[in-house]
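Human: If only I could read backbone structure tokens as easily as an amino acid sequence. Take your time, and here it is.
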Amino acid sequence: MTGKIWSYQAKRGITSNSKIVLDKYRNVRQNDAQLERKECCVARFEKEDVLTSREACELLRISRPTLRNLISKGEISAFKIGNNWRIMRTELERYVKDKSTTRRAGPETNSSPHPPGTG
């Protein structure tokens, strides 16, 4: 069988040195593909950091009971691993963004110094 392979390679102009180069090239390509897959998974996980309740409280600068109230009201999505709450960093960013846009919009106020109907 080896003789047939070498005769085929000889017809194609592939020498033993070029065969070694081709094998190394294939191995490098396979390793690159494996690294790309690993980097893709790592990058995806880094985007969506999972925080403990303590870390989330530190970021928001609130107490843990306040965080539990926000979770129970459904204002912040969270999930449990065992007995511990976990919160996605993107969820906290969404919550802060929603709160800041609500505050900016706020209730409409009357710019007149007089009560309505008097001035």
